[in-house]
Write a structure and sequence with these properties.
elongated, about 325 residues, 5-stranded parallel beta sheet, 2 domains, single chain, CBS-domain, about 15% strand, Rossmann fold
């Protein structure tokens, strides 16, 4: 049976929590100040991989951090996976090839389970990046590049539970992943390829993913009568119709509001160019749908034509399409 925990003063709990977070922030601040050319060397090693992957390894809490770092690398364009050091000694070393690089995490640098992994990387000539606090450790000495963690105290009152050290490891991994992302020009559209599901995937949908195309686009030619525009608006049901010139470029738009403003007894004698609003709002097909939605809300409109630089309409995006896609 688990030991009972005495009821504590809530103010004491908050004070402990704030102390922990403050110490961890201090650790990250010291880590930031300690970065040097070794960090750049590590980025160079990883970015120089043509076919290989980044193998992350660590034991205990460092292993949990390593799994997260591997996942972050993989999701930001750097192929990566985690290898458990104990399993590596029982066959998983075969997962590591000469085209790969290895990042080994150990605060002390003396993790026994890592020894076989270290020896293997030296034997086959795989670059080894060490993340450790101990420059004199076997890990640091075996490494191609050592990324040293500042010697700061753990946030645990006993100075034992991995807290500040694991936060710094996590921060180092994130720093490497983002530095590689920026160096490679990894865009939001690239990011979406690895995050098709969930809320993040929805936020990365493009206008091209949601737009209506082909015969569904409400369009009329310049010189058409207003009654023709009304028929197209009624049939397509977007509350608007685009006006094209003789080269099929979008030169204007007619909305319900335009019709109301021009309401008169001779409305049906007018041509579309007499009623349209010139220079219709457009969006590029590769633009994020969330950006298009924000624009529609700001402009207080319900639809955007999707067009390339030539303003030849490729589709139309309605605010309801964004809502159905779960962008709000």
């Amino acid at each position: 049976m688990a030991p009972s925990c005495p009821i504590s003063d809530s103010s004491q709990d908050l004070e402990v929590a704030q102390t922990v977070l403050q110490k961890e922030m201090e650790g990250l601040n010291e880590l930031s100040k300690s970065l040097n050319g070794s960090f750049v060397d590590a980025v160079n090693i990883i970015s120089g991989l043509s076919q290989g992957r980044v193998i992350i390894s660590g034991m205990g809490k460092a292993g949990h951090v390593g799994r997260k770092i591997a996942a972050t690398f993989a999701s930001t364009g750097t192929p990566s996976f985690f290898v458990h050091p104990a399993e590596a000694s029982h066959g998983d070393l075969g997962m590591i090839t000469r085209e790969d690089s290895v990042i080994a995490l150990s605060n002390s640098g003396k993790t026994r389970e890592l020894l076989d992994l270290l020896e293997y990387t030296r034997r086959i000539g795989v670059p080894l990046i060490a993340v450790t606090q101990n420059i004199e450790s076997d890990l640091a000495k075996a490494a191609t590049v050592s990324l040293l963690l500042p010697k700061v105290l753990e946030a645990c009152p006993n100075g034992l539970a991995p807290t500040t050290s694991t936060i710094m490891m996590m921060g180092m991994g994130d720093a490497l992943a983002v530095a590689l992302l920026v160096r490679r020009g990894f865009s939001a559209h690239d990011f979406r390829r690895f995050h098709p599901g969930g809320a993040l995937g929805r936020k990365l949908l493009t206008c091209a993913d949601l737009m209506h195309q082909g015969d569904k686009i409400p369009l009329v030619k310049i010189g058409s009568q207003i009654d023709q525009a009304l028929l197209v608006m009624s049939e397509k049901r977007f509350g608007c119709v685009g006006v094209l010139d003789d080269d099929h470029h979008l030169i204007g738009i007619i909305t319900d509001g335009d019709l109301r403003r021009h309401m008169s007894s001779d409305l049906f004698e007018k041509k579309v160019e007499d009623v349209m609003t010139p220079q219709a709002q457009t969006v590029l097909p590769e633009s994020l749908a969330v950006e298009a939605l924000a624009r529609m809300q700001t402009k207080e409109i319900t639809a955007l034509f999707v067009a390339e630089g030539s303003l030849k309409p490729m589709g139309i995006l309605n605010i309801h399409d964004c809502l159905r896609a779960g962008l709000i």
